[in-house]
Amino acid sequence: MLQHMAKIDDLATEIERQIRTGQLAPGDRLAPVRQLADDRGLAPNTVAAVYKTLAARGLVQGEGRRGTFVTSRPALRMPVDEPVPDHLVDMARGNPDPTLFPDLAAALKAVPSKPLLYGSEQVLPTLAAAFRSGFDADRVDSTELAVVAGALDGIERVLGAHLRPGDKVGVEDPGYSSVTELVIAMGLRPTPVAVDAQGPTPAGMKTAIEEGIAAVIVTPRAQNPTGCAVDQERASELRQLLQRHPEVLAIEDDHAGPISGADYHSIIPELVDRNSDATKDRRWAVVRSVAKSLGPDLRVSALAGDATTIARVRGRQALGTGWVSHILQHIVASMLTRSDHQATVAAAAATYAKRRNALQRRLAEHGIPTASSSGLNVWIPVDDEASVVSAMERRGYVIRSGASFRMDSPPGVRVTVAGHDHDVLVAAADAMADILTPRSPRRGA
Ligand SMILES: Cc1ncc(COP(=O)(O)O)c(C=O)c1O
Questions:
Q1: What is the DSSP string of 206-271?
Q2: What is 89-99+342-436's CATH superfamily?
Q3: Ligand 1: residues within 6 Å at CB?
Q4: What is the value of pTM for the model shown?
């Protein structure tokens, strides 16, 4: 037995090294179990156990008869974005516009100079109060609250509190690639939930529930990449579906919060129909990040949820990182409690809306409809992502292929409008139209 375990360990470490050094690249197929077993003089069940170990660590994914493949972003290397050359306009990164953030220098002055020692509370009371007032305005019960290091940290902690490797997680399709990749890295199995202009479709949610998802992650607004937002009617339809499935952990990723430019409508039955008995056992969480409104480097998010979920998250946090630095918590609390905070956020939301509209209106004039209604990005359905991306680059614009955001959904490209002014956006729309609109044939040709 011990020898069997040692063999599993050795081979798993060897394959892990091949993935780390790039000998095996994302998407590469591993040798079939029997072949590798023959080559190495091992029993097939030893090799199968190695692949299972690597899958639980999110490094490979079994795809039935097709074989076992290296995952799209194995958690061994830090991906670094290629710098965009100066002569090109960067519409690919999905970043917020830093000129719309509140003044960092003023907030830094709010940090007490007295060092904080071990043994203090995890969450700064002034920050908790500021987060709670935002949650109250949206009727999110934040009696139980944790402060985590960003939306993805919150999602990881909530998934980790309840799920086991191999569990299925409903993820939006198209959806934010890092969420899907995080799910895979945790040894969980992403299951697509189709998305349209109003968010996850009821049919998509129903299919995912029927496939046995243990959790679902939904972006209520500023959906990435599509820019869609869940409206009141869709939220109600999704709540009705989830109401019948209290076993599904429901997570809302409100990563852009108030700068999304769309109202928040929850898909979690317990948050809206609070007196309903049928669903009181559900585990749920809403994570609200300040990354897009105050700046991604703050790494601070509020996590509201049911008592069990938040206790597990906070308890686990206490054993590991302990807390999110109070220096950061002070900075965020100071920004959120400034008298002009609401106005700053409203102005940023309005600016992003104006920028989306500039691109979308011009595209519409060219006969190219788009459905994005919130956030920093506009999604444009296209037939051939790669050729549109390279044709745009030849015209001076770097945009993002939709390929990394999709599972079963149709192709498209993502254009980040966040940091660009009207004229750039109109020119980019003209370039896109030049590529997408078939020219009328020349007479006599
Ligand atoms: C849908 C979605 N979730 C989460 C994040 C990351 O948020 P955070 O930086 O707070 O982890 C992003 C970033 O763009 C996003 O688009």
A1: HHHHHTT-SEEEE--SS-TTT-----HHHHHHHHHHHHT-TTSEEEEEESSGGGGSS------HHH
A2: Aspartate Aminotransferase, domain 1 (3.90.1150.10)
A3: 94, 150-152, 176, 179, 219, 224, 253, 255, 289, 291, 296, 301
A4: 0.94
